[in-house]
Description:
Blueprint: E1 3-7, H1 13-23, E2 29-34, E3 48-52, H2 59-76, E4 83-87, H3 94-105, E5 108-112, H4 123-134, E6 138-140, H5 144-154, E7 161-163, H6 172-181, H7 184-190, E8 198-202, H8 212-220, H9 224-228, E9 230-235, H10 241-254, E10 257-261, H11 267-276, E11 279-281, H12 291-298, E12 302-306, H13 312-317, E13 322-324, H14 327-338, H15 346-357, H16 359-373
Parallel strand pairs: 1-2, 1-4, 2-3, 4-5, 5-6, 6-7, 8-9, 8-11, 9-10, 11-12, 12-13
Helix pairs in contact: 2-3, 3-4, 6-11, 7-11, 8-10, 8-14, 15-16
Amino acid sequence: MPKILLLANAASPWTRELIRNIHCPLGHRVILASFDPAPERDYEGLNTCFEPLAVNIKGPWGKVCKTVALLRLALKYRRKVDMVVIHCPPNNVQALLISWAVRLMDSRTLTVFWGSDLQAVNDAQAGRLAHIVQCSDCVNISTQEMRLAYNRFFGKQFSPKIYSAKFGSLAFSACDEAASEYTKESSKSFFGLDPAKICVAVGYGGKPSHQHVSAIKALARLTGEEKEKIQMLLHMHGGERGYIEKVKSAADEAGIGYVILPGSYGLKEIAIMRMATDIFLHAQTNDAMSSSVRECLYSGAVLVNPSWIRYPEYQELGIDYISYHDFSDLTAKMGELIRGERKINVQRNREIVREEYSWEAVKGEWVRIFDENIT
């Protein structure tokens, strides 16, 4: 039974689902080392043991404790695991400490970049990430845009083997269950939305990078008749109170009905939210094939996406969506959509997303990574 030491965020559902859908079927014994509290009940039956690394210790003393914990971990598992897998590597000084620990463990090492890890960093941060890339035997980069960023920062310096395994989408099965239990109308009612109106979800989180205010101002320029037909859904999970108040103020001034959801939700509620969404308005500054976007496509929403976020994979697969160049262009594109002048084949989108981004669909490349690197 291969032993995998996973250095990852134990609180992240992505870590749990990767273990459930990839490591467990491959018969891996997972040692999960994390600086974050581990909800161990979420990992029951997943053949996983935990190595907490100075969890919940803050400040300068916390940094010392984390350094000591990393060194102890490295000594404990030196040459005793088949592979070390680093997920979502930090771009601060901790990267150097992790690289030392990895070298000390002296095992095959895979670094897995998540989401926009590489697209949202500057040169200084990339320089710190380079310590981890340099000590990796292989690196996983799941999108073409991330590959471009990787090549820009590291391509000429280091040459670990590059893989392109994707993460499956978290909520597909939950979306199927929601569709069997709720209608489009009842899913809207679940969140206090008007079932008779077009639900426009603006972003999928509460960070300023979602550019809610600019997007809402673009919607505010719609005609009165068009605004009357829509209602905004603002899921502000993770947002700070001051920013949420700015978004609320913009929504009040827009003259469009809205519902703000400030909290976090489980997969069931997320699936119902996706089902309630008719139009998913994306305005983030950067993105790397977000699972939230895929879930909306899977649930039949129309994706309205900015041109500064490129999805070449979607274009190659034939996924149909609306692209806008700037926020003035967004107003015109949304008007066409609301008036029914632009049609999107949402059923075909759903089929493509299921075929390409379910856990079963992405499993093959993960299998190849471990087959080629674990002897």
